[in-house]
Fold these 2 entries.
Entry 1:
Amino acid sequence: MKLVMAIIKPFRLDHVRNTLSDLGINGMTVSEVQGFGRQRGHTELYRGAEYMVDFIPKTKVEVACTDELAERVVEAIMDSGKTGKVGDGKVFVLDLEEAYRVRTGESGDSAL
Amino acid sequence: MKLVMAIIKPFRLDHVRNTLSDLGINGMTVSEVQGFGRQRGHTELYRGAEYMVDFIPKTKVEVACTDELAERVVEAIMDSGKTGKVGDGKVFVLDLEEAYRVRTGESGDSAL
Amino acid sequence: MKLVMAIIKPFRLDHVRNTLSDLGINGMTVSEVQGFGRQRGHTELYRGAEYMVDFIPKTKVEVACTDELAERVVEAIMDSGKTGKVGDGKVFVLDLEEAYRVRTGESGDSAL
Amino acid sequence: MKRAILIAVAGLLVSGMASADTLDKADTAWLLTSTALVLFMTLPGLALFYGGLVGRRNVLSVLMQCFTIAGIVTFLWVIVQYSLAFSNGGALNQWVGGFGSAFLAGVTVDSLSGTAPETIFIAFQLTFAIITCALIVGGFAERMRFSAMVLFSVLWSLLVYAPVCHWVWGGGWLADMGFLDFAGGAVVHLTAGVAALVAAMVLGPRTGFPQKPMPPHSLPLTVAGAGMLWVGWFGFNGGSALAADGAAAMALLVTHVGASAGAMGWMAMEWIKFGKPSVLGVVTGMVAGLGTITPASGFVGPIGALIIGLAAGVVCFYATRIIKRVLVIDDSLDVFPVHGVGGSLGLLLCAVFVSAGLGGMGYADGMGMGSQLGVQAVGLLATAAWTALATWVILKVVGLITPLRVSEEDEIEGLDLTQHEERGYSR
Amino acid sequence: MKRAILIAVAGLLVSGMASADTLDKADTAWLLTSTALVLFMTLPGLALFYGGLVGRRNVLSVLMQCFTIAGIVTFLWVIVQYSLAFSNGGALNQWVGGFGSAFLAGVTVDSLSGTAPETIFIAFQLTFAIITCALIVGGFAERMRFSAMVLFSVLWSLLVYAPVCHWVWGGGWLADMGFLDFAGGAVVHLTAGVAALVAAMVLGPRTGFPQKPMPPHSLPLTVAGAGMLWVGWFGFNGGSALAADGAAAMALLVTHVGASAGAMGWMAMEWIKFGKPSVLGVVTGMVAGLGTITPASGFVGPIGALIIGLAAGVVCFYATRIIKRVLVIDDSLDVFPVHGVGGSLGLLLCAVFVSAGLGGMGYADGMGMGSQLGVQAVGLLATAAWTALATWVILKVVGLITPLRVSEEDEIEGLDLTQHEERGYSR
Amino acid sequence: MKRAILIAVAGLLVSGMASADTLDKADTAWLLTSTALVLFMTLPGLALFYGGLVGRRNVLSVLMQCFTIAGIVTFLWVIVQYSLAFSNGGALNQWVGGFGSAFLAGVTVDSLSGTAPETIFIAFQLTFAIITCALIVGGFAERMRFSAMVLFSVLWSLLVYAPVCHWVWGGGWLADMGFLDFAGGAVVHLTAGVAALVAAMVLGPRTGFPQKPMPPHSLPLTVAGAGMLWVGWFGFNGGSALAADGAAAMALLVTHVGASAGAMGWMAMEWIKFGKPSVLGVVTGMVAGLGTITPASGFVGPIGALIIGLAAGVVCFYATRIIKRVLVIDDSLDVFPVHGVGGSLGLLLCAVFVSAGLGGMGYADGMGMGSQLGVQAVGLLATAAWTALATWVILKVVGLITPLRVSEEDEIEGLDLTQHEERGYSR
Ligand SMILES: Nc1ncnc2c1ncn2[C@@H]1O[C@H](COP(=O)(O)OP(=O)(O)O)[C@@H](O)[C@H]1O
Ligand SMILES: Nc1ncnc2c1ncn2[C@@H]1O[C@H](COP(=O)(O)OP(=O)(O)O)[C@@H](O)[C@H]1O
Ligand SMILES: Nc1ncnc2c1ncn2[C@@H]1O[C@H](COP(=O)(O)OP(=O)(O)O)[C@@H](O)[C@H]1O
């Protein structure tokens, strides 16, 4: 199994989620993160002076999937998360040794 | 070493933490996440109309542990996180190549 | 490639980020987490009574890097994150199977 | 009400001590207080009410709009808007005031308006001009460019608020007809509601509407603002008696009853329809009740207010659903169904419950329920029509000068960052 | 105080200009303002104060309860509660008012109550009835079912608030005895405190109490509410003079001093006990000081107020610890130790500091410190006993109709989602 | 203004009905209200305004400081500060009051001050003493130890506020000179601004200043507080007329105009300089406008106020940049550039726009623009010099008793946890 971890732009989340659902992925875990990268931050005003804020709100999506699906999951995220502008984010793939479903105790592919 | 990453129901956290402490685990890292899965979200009211919210607040627990303990950590989480209802969550096990303790520079099992 | 995941004290973040930039690392993802560990929590007052809060705000930094850089990344974080007091945190190293850049579709080292 | 009806009320209610041309310090004290209360309704009341309802990335834009409107309307008011609303318009006096009081010419510390200093009448009325313009913000929230908003507010205040206010309270044609609008059902709520609706239609819906839920980012802010609105409304309606007397006291009481009944009416609807009442529902019903009792607040008794409030809760509940669901218009914060519909309903019900037989203050000489209803309908329709037309033209003109909407990208990024380079919340 | 003592006060303090049967516009102006101030204490004051103290998942439930209580108590007041509290009860007049003013029959724009319109007296007193009922919310917060809360509030307002108010301010037996309760130490704070305690015991503690810490989700909200309570209390106590005179001014001053002293007293205790004072401690002490000075606020001087406030800070600090720690009762937001104990303390200390020798207004004819203390003790015990009994019975009856508590699952999920299908905060 | 000028004003404006030695209930009603409004400015107004501007980990420390100052200044006021400010100082009367009114000796429910009860004059002035001391908090925010802050506030209130207040309003040397300071440009804003600057310099900058951005953790809180400040300021300036008359009404109107113009002035500067106006800019300009109009608010007309407000927006904008950027002083929340500079500007512009030719109330006999400017400059410099010197000495003395700053570690951890064992926000 693989753990696919993607850092995307927050407003693409709905699109990414729908694309993954279409693939038959019916579970994922999402969190708010801050990204530093090539994408520049923005300036903010504070009482007549500007300063630079260099972290950017991003969304992290984690999807555990079977080895077979992994490639298609990555592709789906790459497609649906893409705007073509700097800061679109990354997809990382990690090997997942084991997965369990707490409710039933199932493990392996059937736990996903 | 293993990195055990569990997605659980937020109100089970105290219980999970106590069970892990009993196992001799004295460190873990916790974060707030949003889960999508089999568990249905809820409806919300907004000025005389209902809409569906389909993400559900979950808690992510990350525990680094020795290979030997890994299985018991997983079991402990499965036991203490379980309510038997849909949405109880998942436990994922990843291989952890190396761990370091920042304060002392220790590495390996003794860093945990 | 490696995924270096560090749990550090929040106010060391700026320092860690600068040190990593000096190393040529130009991307990372940061999130707020709560840590349990050897470091004691603090007491809080509530209407004439004290109670114990045992989670501590920490910052998680995730950096994907090439195998070659990994060791230096770890060292840089250990140096810049260190205050010498309990609770300085941990650095975990995971094997990263693959990385992609969403914007360009690049993969491998050049995606970082 | 206001000046136009002052004389009548004075005859009825004011104790013998005060006559229309000497200063009454008690009336002054109450008007000073009322002015503070009505400003409080906008700042921070309405600002927080609206601010909580929008997304986290747009909270400041709404607060900014409310504060900026307070600033620019004050400028306009001093320069010419007060004059257009309340001074004598000469040959055009049926339609609009003149320039005689421009730059508050001739206003001194000793000038009187009724039994109170003219300066406090100016300030009190100014707070009405501010909140009316600020109410419209709810119609175009989360997508309008800031500079377009500024331009729009200037023109709208001069071309809609000033004349309509003159018609009703400045001695214009509606005042002459015997139109009843004690504290602004037409002047404030109907104009704001119609303007918001037109703005929502001209600007188009927010990106994602109606599929994407757009939940309030902080209901506690909204509820805090709602409480301030309720409290401030005591000055809005009670102060409109322009005296600290039985009329003010009765206005305050019926205002309170109307608010409660509106809240309970809406709550009942939600409980019946969804099995659960919501706090947003309750405070929305409360605002609906307040907007609806406003035109009637000097004319009806407590039982009339109870019925008017309940009607407001039920009618505005359905109106909101119809605008959002059936007509699919993104009047973002429901200004039209709450204020426009509520104000209109109040204008009409006022003609019923002013009846002495129903506990009201009774009809003017020669007026009956039917004729009063007719007058109210005329005033209502004229106000709505002029507001709709003028708002539409103003938006088209502003749109020629500067785009009305931000880009989709900026809308997604949020107005706070893109229009004001600020974020609502940080570490 | 209020109407019952009005005549005495009028004789002492009111300037010759006003007599009890003509309208005084200045008194009216101050009562209009005071009514706004007291409503402000509940909405949004108390709502925010309580809302900040509960968990994030229950913030709306508390706001909802406060708003809903404002709505339903207004209905009850208009229909029958005002009549039961303030009209003549005939043969039962010692115990409760009658039905003569039901539906505010006979109340017109010209009706007077003392020197002010009866309508403003009605509205002013109504805001007291609202806040009393809303205070109880703190006792059963975070676990009561909404529908049970509604039913409870209706019955409690009619069976506890109305009669006790009549005893003290409506011409009932306590008024006859010379019981001193200027602005509601017994009528408001003691009744609410005892009711909250009984409710907490009948419903049982929140899941996890007392092991699990239940920290306030937003102290800034709580502190904002605290500031509003302080400011609004000027209308609560100052307005209870029912005139804009020296009595009102003194009441305002001692109220302010009492609040400060309560805050400083509690702060001192925390500083001594824990080495650090907390902001929640300071604002809790402030509320304790305010609740304690309330019954005495028309009778004592500033130095008396200083001592009363300090006593409140210290005594309520210990009371809170005893209820939560020793008796392990989950009166969630500490209504009893702050309002119940504070109100009682104030009723007793009032009997001491009313003494002219201690800077107070002096005893009534034939009364001395001992006899006054006796009267105060009787009033206090009677109020507490009736409240406890009636509250218990009401809860049992409501419990037969509908469960009082939500399920454990719903409690964990939070009342906002399960009772109202809303969340306090979103993106 | 206040008492010192009361007689003059009374002669000019007060209607014949009231004379200086009988109670006027209308004036009393307005002063009761104004006292509530000014307290509201601090609690929760200023507390929220400041609380939103600091980091999340220090929000409670700021709220705590504001509440604690309210508590301790009340104690001081009752004990001796009121006496030092307003009683007759005998031989030293030019410099400071005496001890004749210590513990409010001789103050009864019947004591008058002008046409109102002395008790309300005491309470009204007390709210000024509170807010002045609370304003200073902005200078040392996010790093001062709580106990040092308490000690400092006690000494500062006695050694700076009391004498300066006496100079200007208590019959001291500045009053004698004909110094114009209607509602506290010198007494309140200049003293607070200078004290904050000195404190910022003595304590040194916050760790990380000026490299590290320190964004406000919650601008909605700040904007809520700003709205409350605006509304409350109607009581601050309007109440300073000490009567419910034309002077109060004009003061309210020019206050409102000054606030709006300040907001628009600052907004214009930001729009020009950065291409975007910010909400923090608008509310800061608003406060600057209010601080600047304060000394002039009883003397100028609406057009004068418009110009004064605009000047405030522009000048304080530059002043803020100079202090923070050029002089690199960490007056954390910009108290000096906004209040100190604003107050000074207002004192000077007052001497210009009081001119009857410019719409003002006219100069006193024997005074002209030049001579008035001279008097204003003397008062301004004397106030600033004494405040700077005394503040510096007080801080040095306090520093000998207890460290002024928290440790760097505690600063990083946040004052909420380390000084008060609380966190602003939890689950
Ligand atoms: N080496 C990295 N390790 C972890 N996260 C990264 C890394 N590089 C980039 N990121 C994440 O990806 C986001 C987008 O990266 P950025 O360099 O801005 O744009 P792009 O991916 O289009 O080149 C960053 O904000 C950060 O969250
Ligand atoms: N494939 C997955 N990858 C990552 N997280 C998942 C995955 N499936 C489920 N989760 C997480 O587990 C939570 C519970 O899953 P759900 O399907 O609702 O219930 P259950 O685990 O009882 O079948 C989800 O809310 C989500 O956070
Ligand atoms: N076994 C573990 N797995 C995951 N995170 C851990 C583990 N042990 C510690 N941590 C994280 O590291 C932080 C610091 O650990 P702690 O034991 O307090 O201090 P130190 O690292 O100095 O010994 C903790 O707050 C927690 O977030």
Entry 2:
Amino acid sequence: MDFALSEERRMLVETLERYLRDRYPIETRHAASASENGYSREVWEALAELGAVGAMFPADAGGFGGEGEDISLVFEELGKALTVEPFLANLLGGTALALAGGQQGLLDNVIAGVTTVTLAHGEPASRYALHHVETRAEGGRLTGRKAVVPNGDSADHIVVSARVSGDVDAPEGLGLYLVEAGAEGLSRRGYATVDGGRAAEITLENTPATPLGEPGQAGDLIERIVARGVLAASAEAVGLMQVCCDTTLEYLKTRKQFGRSIGGFQALQHRMVEMVMELEQTRSAVMLAAASLDAERADRERALSAAKNLAGRAGRMIAEEAIQLHGGIAMTWEYPLPHFAKRLVMIDHLFGDTDHHLERFRNFA
Amino acid sequence: MDFALSEERRMLVETLERYLRDRYPIETRHAASASENGYSREVWEALAELGAVGAMFPADAGGFGGEGEDISLVFEELGKALTVEPFLANLLGGTALALAGGQQGLLDNVIAGVTTVTLAHGEPASRYALHHVETRAEGGRLTGRKAVVPNGDSADHIVVSARVSGDVDAPEGLGLYLVEAGAEGLSRRGYATVDGGRAAEITLENTPATPLGEPGQAGDLIERIVARGVLAASAEAVGLMQVCCDTTLEYLKTRKQFGRSIGGFQALQHRMVEMVMELEQTRSAVMLAAASLDAERADRERALSAAKNLAGRAGRMIAEEAIQLHGGIAMTWEYPLPHFAKRLVMIDHLFGDTDHHLERFRNFA
Amino acid sequence: MQIRFSPEEEAFRAEVREWLGGALPPALAEKVKGAKRLTKADYELWHAKLHERGWLAPSWPEEWGGTGWTPAQKHIFEEECVRANAPRVVPFGITMLGPVLIKFGTEAQKAHYLPRILDGTDWWCQGYSEPGAGSDLASLKTRAVRDGDHYVVNGQKTWTTLGHHADWMFCLVRTDPQAAKPQEGISFLLIDMASPGVEVRPIITLDGEHEVNEVFLTDVRVPAGNLVGEENRGWTCAKYLLTHERTNIAGVSYSKSGLAHLKRLAAKQKSGGKPLAEDPLFAARMAQVEIDLTALEIFNLRLVSAAGKGQAPGAESSLLKIKGTEVRQEITDLLRRAIGPYAMPYVPEAFDEGYNAEPIGPEDAMPLAKGYFNMRKLSIYGGSNEIQKNIVSKQLLGL
Amino acid sequence: MQIRFSPEEEAFRAEVREWLGGALPPALAEKVKGAKRLTKADYELWHAKLHERGWLAPSWPEEWGGTGWTPAQKHIFEEECVRANAPRVVPFGITMLGPVLIKFGTEAQKAHYLPRILDGTDWWCQGYSEPGAGSDLASLKTRAVRDGDHYVVNGQKTWTTLGHHADWMFCLVRTDPQAAKPQEGISFLLIDMASPGVEVRPIITLDGEHEVNEVFLTDVRVPAGNLVGEENRGWTCAKYLLTHERTNIAGVSYSKSGLAHLKRLAAKQKSGGKPLAEDPLFAARMAQVEIDLTALEIFNLRLVSAAGKGQAPGAESSLLKIKGTEVRQEITDLLRRAIGPYAMPYVPEAFDEGYNAEPIGPEDAMPLAKGYFNMRKLSIYGGSNEIQKNIVSKQLLGL
């Protein structure tokens, strides 16, 4: 048992941390968020060059990481800088390419930061159901609607889940398909998201698509792709929580009221302690989830659901308490904290919320 | 809309309060609890004489109250004094007699404090299910087991629910029967309860019994009897919470630590405020429940379940916080507070706990 | 004890409801229901309707245009307005300044300002908070120095709600910096927003909206006649205002509207093939907050009833405020959870009049996450919940 | 990062488990599992078994009889002992006094007392708390006045766990009432419980049990040689003791046992015709506390791992203590809820050896409500959770 990082991972973390601290102040982030694609191509390419994209994928897929710990470390750093660049989209889309195989050239370009990919899996009626897919695949063409696709408005390539057979909720009968952004019959309605990112509603109408892997067999693949998404989102939440806690603590120390620093008020001190405790709990759960990413299914899914449940529950608590302990200033757009809080709460809407994962945790007992 | 008490009720409350304050100090209560029957016959008779028993029943049943407000006021006072006398048992048993009719003489004696009655309804496997009855009635004789019957070891008369027909959980096919304590085939295993009261496991083996009302039709009667029990228990919880809050507040004001009164610590102040807030919430819910006791079924059951849910939830919070804010002294038998806390928590085990009533509340929406 | 409203009170409710049915334009009610942005004209229209009916200022004495209602009637009236999705009455003139003028103003001030509040001539805003003095009003720094028959005011106010619409601002200013206690030496001043030296700058809140402002005051000359009450005794006015009319502080009506909306949404949303309303955990969360709200409503009515007997609501109204905001915030949390991934889209233009594009996600979903974040303010403003706990602790519990 | 135990550590676990299987009498394990009362002989038997195996004092240096284990091994050992339902080792001699003597005692003291702790000759108890000084040790009042080669001690100690079994008490006493700060002027003294003037009186706790005591000290003459460390510097010993060996403070193993018990009960209990374990709300509560416990276990291991690298656990162990007690208490709460009405029966004699009557209610139900109340102590003793929060706030957060 040893919780220390390997030398390589420590260096990756430090490199990322340094780049984001020096080159990605909140103004840069806001500008990237407000730009047409909702992120900075320049930052994306620079981070890819530093290896942050490659770290998300194993060596046999052209990356140099891909273990749970790699993913969680990268996303914790991304969270600490409130990064809007399309890491989650490319983790999901890229993992689909890597697990299904046969698209190494494209994946190499993703890892190099030359092109981008996303996963269009959720649908207007699926909510958090893992295998709810109404989109149909027939004769190599797809028809259906995909909902809240991360960076779905700007991705060059889109991995789309579609049903070959079976009921709308069946894990069987699902396929993954690669679709070009400009494909015939594909339309995208892009929009900003509450947390400063971008997403899209995607409509497919008899759209040509390339099958990834064996059509009809993708149910398990999808679970393993989403598993990486759950880990990434939970680890990002840890980074966000860390900033919320640090910022609030700093504020408690500097802000004066009734003639003294408000950090001297015991009621606020105890609440700050509880925030830090929940942060450490979530961090611990994410460590276990990272270590369990390649474990057998029940262990993996339980550990992931524990982490995501805590990310949602502690995330809400920390976001709300950070705003409350700040008071008015945290209600302003100008102050960075609320943007961290918004992303933190929105993570509860990715891949299943805290109740969804509570239920999933116990179903894998 | 007017929340003031009528003159008669104000007098009843004051009479009860004065008697219990002057004649029922905690030592008297403990002695009563430790005695063979687990209560003081003398106190019971005195309280009956003051009208506390009669207030639980309507005029047409020989009492002079019987509305929700009468019951809640009486039980709040009983809670404030941590009374162990068999009010709940006689409310349940007496209400059965009153609603089923035909036993006015016995009920008169109950109201006069001359004899006592209880309700044996719950069974070893029923948990909180309202109509789960396995005890069978055949040919005027009862066979079965009854669980945790309040004051079941000392009651002179026992109203027993038994099944004439139907599945074990069916509301249909139930009857209520009057059984004498010394009846043939009846055995009782009495024991103390965690909160200082007494209860019994009762076994009936072909025990002769007198039907109350129409056998097979008692499902609705049982719901209405238990409704009064729910109201009484919730109101008693309010009285107990009041004492827990008052005692803790007093302790915060007098106890010194680190050179100052601990009530000066803001973290404790805020927790004390939250306790008082939950007390007021529960008090409010009990007022609504009392006013809804004779309303149509859904309104009545929703209001009762809201009150009982809060009594359980706020009750636990207040019991635990009262002990915690006191520290060590509240862990001792000698100090009165923990006995209030124990009764408060045990009320969650009467007639359905906080989750049971949450579920019931929404089922009556 | 009679926990229900009397027949007379129910008749009054029917009268209010009937009037609202006729007076409130359905398009305006739809905007309120859909959490769209309200224009200045929207507020003014509703203000005028209420004024026309004589129901604009229930808390004023009848001689100045009040209604003579009991606290129970006021409660019913507010409940019905929220239920009908009427816009709120901007409180600064009607609820805040009016009672202060009536209590502390000169006859001339009352005769001049009160009718102009009622007929909508003057839109008022509040100049209390300052940067660095959120819940701690006594530490305010804006200075007013007497210069002949004027005060010269310098300083900065913040969180000025709808200040960009306002004609006038009532303002706390420091007139005696040497006063023994910080809350002494403060005065209550009325400032014409058109005065030279007044500059209003928007504050954009975390949800991207502009409702509050900063107001910069640079050598603003205010006639001495605009002083309300005595010089250096403004704290008295401020305290009076803070304790006035607090029985509706719990926002029970808003919570009831929110809960009804939540139930509709949860009945329509599907989770695992069944309505979300039947998901045991979500249903339990909804039931739990409904129970809390049920109890809170009775608690609120207890204080309304006490007010009807002339008992001023004391620190109990702080308890109402705390629990009321907790319940409202919990409902906004469940609303954002109810719609799952569709909490994410953020399309600011969708909240403007005339936006006609198809909504993204379920009907009514778009304002929900935004609303969740916006409603964080409930526990911060009007005296943060921490301040309310301090008040209860001190005044009610004697700690 | 390697979050799992190494093969060597797992081999050690297997060794411990195998030994426990042979050494722990099943009847004793059953008593522990059933929350029966343990006799003095029960404790002594287990103490002797551990001593015989050389595993009694893992936190002592090897030269004095320690095991030389890593923090991970100590952790595994404690985990396995709890899992096997071994009685706890009474901590006062082994965990508390031993390390203090080793750090601050004279060679003569070490040579005399340490072997007697190990072989069970001396049963120690702790004399820290006093009435009126729960979490505030610095305010203690028990006086020790030097009289020749003795101290004369007067005062009162409380919460003395198992003091009725003890031969000796280590004790904080005030030797200099004029000291500048209250925590100065305190000394650490060893008192023979057989001394004239020592009186032990039971404290019955809220659950009706006798485990703790008051100890009255009246003109007790204590040889000056029984002073540990320097006079007036007892605070140093006390602080050292309070910060020593705190990585197991979370009680994760107890929570795991409790949770396993809870799951067994909930699978057997019926609610509405189905196992309680399938009731959505109850199942959600169980899952929630299991998730918290899962995370806590990793948090605990992080600190164990850090301790293995020589990093002393600081205020983080206070976080462990807080969350650990919250989780344990939540489990006891669910245990009492699980059994419904059968939480009520209270039959004190059922916890004695030799009670053979049929249990009332479901198997194992009888100690549960009692246990819920008893476990309220977890957040009170050993530095209340409020004190722990103060420590974290000051030491970790710098507030």
